[in-house]
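agent> fetching stored inputs for the magnesium ion docking request
agent> found them:
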Amino acid sequence: MRTGIMGGTFDPIHYGHLLAAEEARRILNLERLIFVPTGDPPHKANSRVTPSEDRYAMTLLATAGVLEYSVSRTEIDRKESSYTVDTLREFVHSGINPDELFFITGLDAMLSITSWFEFEKIPELCTLVTARRPGYPVDGIERLPKFIRDDLKYIEIPQFAISSTEIRERVRQNKGIRFLVPHLVEIYIMSNNLYKT
Ligand code: ATP
Ligand code: MG
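agent> prediction call returned; pasting tokens
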């Protein structure tokens, strides 16, 4: 079953993520798409990342009702630090053929792949898919190791220039975020007073 994985902090999930994931699904003919929010960072006390349960809830709200989409708790429930390579291993061990497993990232994320834990193992586990993203250099791919570039599928998607950082900043400044995130995500942020401080 052709499966796309979209990992992220999703703090909060926004239409840039959803559009990239949906375009990857369409272009690569994926039968399902699994969103994987990251777990809480190990040093939680001084972390500025919103608790994983809130990020998970928002990801659920954003994807609910889309037949091909689901949200995985695998990184949130993992006790130790959670790494992409472990997540991909889990999916492969659960029976997904690596030839049918696609890990979707924005270009900015892809350019930092050499800093990911055991990144050399990743191409054996999946095909890397990179969506071009506005505001980030389109060059840099050529500096990645050849075995990564050989595994990489590069897709052009409509550009939606928004980041979670900008959304958090807009909430802090009392600017609206309507049409930047799904309506239920907006409601969740407001009812739980997220990003105010
Ligand atoms: P932050 O501003 O906090 O870094 P973010 O918007 O970059 O948040 P992440 O959760 O860090 O979101 O990103 C998850 C994945 O989504 C990454 O692979 C990232 O490259 C990709 N991504 C983020 N924003 C967009 C966008 N507007 N269009 C396409 N891909 C995006
Ligand atoms: Mg980011």
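agent> quick read of the result: The chain has a mean pLDDT of 93.
agent> awaiting further instructions
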